[in-house]
Amino acid sequence: MEMLGSLPNLMQLRLERDAYIGEKLAFKTGAFPNLKKLGIRDLDELIELKFEDGTSPQLAMIHICWCELRSGITGVNHLPKLQEISLGFGGRVAKLAMLQSEVDAHTNSPVLRLYNERSGHDLWDVFVQLEDVTGESSSLHPEPAAAGESSQSQAVGMATANISNSQDDVLYTYNSC
């Protein structure tokens, strides 16, 4: 990762299957200066994703699918341009409520998108709906409910991207998990 992190023009990084083998993926201070999109898919050994202060200052989108991050995701507050974290099929995270709190407190107002119901993405965590506690809604942005769906299912869906131009094909493949 050090070698990749030192590439000054790297803007998109997608790690799949055997591309990274290890339990902890830490984005170190000063690394990935121009990274804008990060995709993580099917990394069986990965249990923790960490962003240190001063890493990835341009990172706007993180998409995770088919990974169980049993130690969670930390340090998103160190990503000043973050716009979205999405958990696709099989993307599961410990301490999901804590991640939601970090996202809600972020100065750039990013969103946390979930493909399935919240319980399908949460590992060993008790969820308290933020709106019930604070009277305010969180930054979880669901897809609008289709006709006949309940409001509960509306609050937990994720719109998959329907990208039409070839320039954004990488984003489309991120959301196709």
Automatic annotation (TrEMBL):
<keyword id="KW-0677">Repeat</keyword>
<dbReference type="InterPro" id="IPR032675">
    <property type="entry name" value="LRR_dom_sf"/>
</dbReference>
<protein>
    <recommendedName>
        <fullName>Disease resistance R13L4/SHOC-2-like LRR domain-containing protein</fullName>
    </recommendedName>
</protein>
<feature type="domain" description="Disease resistance R13L4/SHOC-2-like LRR">
    <location>
        <begin position="1"/>
        <end position="111"/>
    </location>
</feature>
<dbReference type="InterPro" id="IPR055414">
    <property type="entry name" value="LRR_R13L4/SHOC2-like"/>
</dbReference>
<dbReference type="Pfam" id="PF23598">
    <property type="entry name" value="LRR_14"/>
</dbReference>
